[in-house]
Amino acid sequence: MTDAIAGNDKRKRLSSEERRDEFVQKAIEFFAEEGFSSSTRDLAKRLGVTQPLLYRYFDSKNDLISEVYETVYVRRWRTDWEDLLAERSVPLRDRLLTFYRAYTDVVFQRDWMRIFLFAGLKGGEINRRYIDRVRGRVLEPIIREYRYENGLPESDVTPEETELAWSVHGGIYYFGVRTEIYGQKPIKGLDYVIETSIDGLLNGLDRFHGVARRR
User: Fold this and answer.
1) How far is it, in rounded angstroms, from Cα 12 to Cα 170?
2) What's the CA gap between 36 and 109, in Å, rounded?
3) Quick one: CA dihedral 67, 130, 140, 77, positive or negative?
4) How far is CA 70 from CA 22, 62, 116, 190, in A?
5) For residue 181, what is the DSSP state?
6) What are phi and psi of 165, to 5 degrees?
7) What is the C-alpha to C-alpha distance for residues 40 and 30, in angstroms, rounded to an integer?
8) What's the rounded mean pLDDT across residues 76-101?
9) Which structural domains are found in the chain, ordered by start?
10) With b meaning 16 or more CB within 10 Å and e meaning fewer, what string describes 177-209?
11) 36 and 69 in contact (C-beta within 8 Å)?
12) Rounded distance, CA 92 to CA 83, Å?
């Protein structure tokens, strides 16, 4: 039996769900390399299947992109991150250090970062959905936990607080862009960036709320 026939037999033995998962994984690799302007025809060639077969599993290119989002950005999201941020028996600074070390372990991956950047250039839904997730599940909870730790009244998160949190989150993310995408060798390591960024956020919130404390 030739390798080609053996490969075809293996493909035939895949269940419909396994075949779909295989297509999604290959699509992740494809979009991470080529971006979202590439056609499903090119993707089908990469997969070694016909375009009509691909559309038997996905109604449209956008449907496939949604599956890529779910796989890369939703399924890799760890629910214990949110539990960690809410654990009030641990000082907030320590929680943030632990969170961002764990978060960057997941995010600073080639496919995660390249797909996110390509999606931003396309102006697609991936970035909007993920930004909403980060704001609602990370940044706003951080601000609420800061208020609780400092005995401040509960109220809606302000735009100023949100921008402070985004500036820190974005700065940590950009460290990954520099190292994983641009291939730059950092002057200081990731841990240094995380620690100084978190201290900058907490000091900024102190100034905003008039909390007198030296960290």
Assistant:
1) 45
2) 18
3) positive
4) 14, 12, 13, 27
5) I
6) -65, -40
7) 10
8) 97
9) 3-71 (1.10.10.60), 77-209 (1.10.357)
10) eebbeeeeeeeeebeebbbebbeebbebbbeee
11) no
12) 13
The model's pLDDT over 29-63, given as tens digits with 9 standing for 90+, comes to 999 999 988 889 999 998 889 999 999 999 999 89
Alpha helices in 58-122 (DSSP H): 61-69, 79-85, 92-107, 110-122
Question: pLDDT tens digit string along 189-208?
Answer: 999 999 999 999 999 999 99
Cβ-contact 19, 57 below 8 angstroms: yes
Does residue 8 or residue 91 have the better pLDDT?
Answer: 91
Q: How far, in Å, CA of 23 to CA of 67, rounded?
A: 10
Instruction: Please return the burial class of 30, using the count of CB atoms within 10 Å of its CB with bins 0-12, 13-18 and 19+.
Output: buried
Contacts of 97 (CB under 8 A, 6+ apart): 194, 195, 198
